[in-house]
Design a protein that fits this description.
495 residues; alpha+beta; Jelly Rolls; Immunoglobulin-like; seven-stranded antiparallel beta sheet; 23% helix
Length: 495
């Protein structure tokens, strides 16, 4: 796999505004009557720069009212909460309606009134046009744009809370920009506490020391096992969000920070990465909570990646986090020469389980322990189904032995650790230090003492990998799973 490169479609800061506006004019000219005047593009709906850090643009009338209503109808957006309530009942009318528009796994796992479309299954004529328009505004190939997410946000639900759109461990390729479009007039609004909004910024956005501290944390997010909202929600950020969301019309007139509320068909285009391609902490944002219980946000979101999703993941639907993590590690491997493989031992013979043995159609490879003492580790070329998880007794203690070998071009860095990358810790620490230097061609044994949850019927998994002293992962992904049952069964896992 090719090494990571700095994203190339970002214009320099000085040309940022002009490039985006020109893209808007060129792509919407026929439909929206765009013209060029004195070198500055003019769009009939209007384009307004709301913030320079991060760049946030208000695009008036990205959709017509008729287009917005058609999307609401085509995708049954008003029924999304009903789909959620019926997710476990495949015989319900809502679930059957969901299957007419979305894959079965999406209908069974929708959360809080949101769902991602699947262009291969169903893409209405209006949606196809909108996706083309969005790619043009973001100055990006259409294969870089994720399939559209649709939201029916209830008043009491604040979405993800304060978050970055690059929110999980290893979003790869990263989300460079986001286009959010209101499908109905928005009574709730979005807040960017750290953005330097022209209409009035929150004082926290002017605290350079605080922002720099958060920015440093944000740049570590891809290397830690935490999402942005878990790592960065400080009390001052939460208070800033509340302050912005409760602002009155009088405060807005005096240029006090206030939520960005969109009219039907209006859109926000904002950038999640800075000019160096790093996660921009000033893009931290959230929906506000509404005062009225009847208030809802109906909107759609498209996330623009730094490179093609089709080339890497063979679909424009959002990949599973573990699949993206696998791709991220693989891309860095060619650059840094670090690698680790799971070693099998049989008598005097030993070898390494290698992902190249997976079929070409596989999007990831991991190694999973055997399900009985002495059983060899197994190469996984897909995510296991929960029905395949190893059965353990409630609260049962078990041991995972990992026999790992340095199959890279360089010795493992001093201070390397076995690190939890995702899932549940299962009673283990988040990291275990590698106790010795491991030159190329050498092996090391590491042991995890784990405990199954007490609740019968619980299913859990954990994903581990080696990582350097800065918690940047490398090498094979190690998968441990379990299903808690009442059957007594002693288990020992070995790599």
């Amino acid at each position: 796999m090719a090494p990571l490169r700095r994203p190339c479609f970002f214009p320099a800061r000085a040309a940022f505004k002009g490039a985006v506006l020109l893209a808007a004019a060129l792509t919407s000219g026929a439909a929206s009557g765009a013209t060029l005047s004195s070198g500055s593009p003019i769009w009939r709906g209007g384009v307004e720069l709301l913030s320079e850090a991060p760049p946030i643009y208000l695009l008036r009338g990205l959709l017509s009212g008729a287009e917005a209503e058609r999307l609401l109808t085509d995708y049954d957006v008003e029924l999304l909460p009903e789909f959620t309530r019926s997710a476990m009942n495949s015989s319900s009318p809502a679930f059957k309606r969901c299957l007419q528009r979305f894959p079965k796994e999406a209908c069974a796992s929708v959360s809080a009134g949101e769902i991602q479309t699947d262009p291969e299954l169903y893409n209405s004529q209006v949606m196809a046009e909108v996706q083309h328009r969005v790619a043009g505004f973001a100055k990006s190939p259409q294969e870089n744009v994720e399939a559209t997410w649709l939201f029916n946000r209830e008043a009491a639900h604040q979405g993800l809370g304060l978050h970055l759109d690059n929110h999980h461990h290893f979003m790869f390729p990263r989300r460079a920009a986001t286009v959010v479009v209101a499908l109905r007039q928005d009574p709730i609004g979005f807040a960017f506490p750290l953005a330097k909004l022209r209409a009035g910024s929150h004082p926290l956005a002017e605290d350079g020391e605080f922002v720099s501290k958060l920015q440093a944390e944000a740049r570590l997010l891809p290397f830690r096992g935490n999402s942005a909202r878990q790592s960065l929600n400080s009390g001052s950020l939460q208070e800033a969000l509340r302050s912005i969301c409760r602002s009155s019309k009088q405060q807005q007139q005096h240029h006090q920070p206030s939520p960005i509320r969109l009219r039907q068909g209006d859109a926000l285009l904002y950038y999640n990465l800075d000019a160096d391609g790093e996660v921009d902490i000033r893009a931290l944002h959230s929906s506000c909570l509404a005062a009225s219980p009847d208030s809802r946000q109906f909107f759609m979101a498209n996330f623009v990646r730094t490179s093609s999703l089709l080339n890497l993941h063979r679909s424009v639907r959002t990949p599973h986090p573990i699949v993206e993590m696998h791709s991220w590690i693989g891309a860095r491997r060619a650059d840094n020469g670090l690698d680790a493989g799971a070693v099998w031992v049989q008598g005097e013979e030993l070898g390494v389980l290698d992902g190249v043995d997976c079929p070409p159609s596989a999007l990831l490879s991991m190694v999973r322990p055997g399900s009985a003492p002495g059983e060899q580790p197994a190469l996984l070329c897909r995510l296991p189904q929960s029905s395949e998880f190893v059965v353990l007794q409630p609260g049962e203690a078990f041991e995972v032995q990992m026999h790992l070998g340095n199959v890279g071009r360089k010795p493992w860095p001093e201070g390397s650790v076995l690190s939890l990358r995702g899932g549940q810790a299962l009673g283990a620490p988040a990291g275990i230090r590698v106790p010795q230097q491991v030159p190329v061609g050498s092996t090391v044994n590491l042991v995890l003492d784990l405990t199954a949850p007490e609740q019968p019927g619980t299913r859990a998994h954990a994903v581990w990998s080696l990582a350097d002293a800065l918690h940047v992962p490398f090498g094979v992904l190690l998968w441990v799973d379990l299903a808690v049952a009442v059957v007594h069964q002693r288990s020992c896992f070995m790599f």
